[in-house]
Amino acid sequence: MARAATTSDVFNAIAEPQRRGILGVLRGGERAVGELARELGMSQPGASKHLRVLREVGLVRDRQVGKQRLYGLDARGLRPVHEWVGGFEEFWNESFGRLDAYVQELKQERQED
């Protein structure tokens, strides 16, 4: 099975841990590439490469402010991930519901003993 291009598939883009780290930092607000690199302990060229990928999949937007380019999170790009993960929410809710029912049953049995 062919793997989707990292630059067009949000799942592939966020599979890289440093890109997830960048998204986590940008959740707190816009940053210049140098700030991101320092905060995450990576080289500036490395941060730029990851930002390019994240921008291409629609997770990061950028804007020019004077001589500096600031990068910010565009969480709308995470919608496919949210929709996919949300499909498992029902599974977990049902599992926790069954676990809760079992715990209540055990409590009831202890009270009767």
Automatic annotation (TrEMBL):
InterPro entries: ArsR-like_HTH, HTH_ArsR_DNA-bd_dom, WH-like_DNA-bd_sf, WH_DNA-bd_sf. It comes from Kribbella jejuensis. CDD domains: HTH_ARSR. One of its GO terms (molecular function) is DNA-binding transcription factor activity. Residues 1-93 form the HTH arsR-type domain. This is ArsR family transcriptional regulator. It holds the Pfam family HTH_5. Coiled coil: none annotated. The lineage of its organism: Bacteria, Bacillati, Actinomycetota, Actinomycetes, Propionibacteriales. NCBIfam families: HTH_metalloreg. SUPFAM superfamilies: Winged helix' DNA-binding domain.
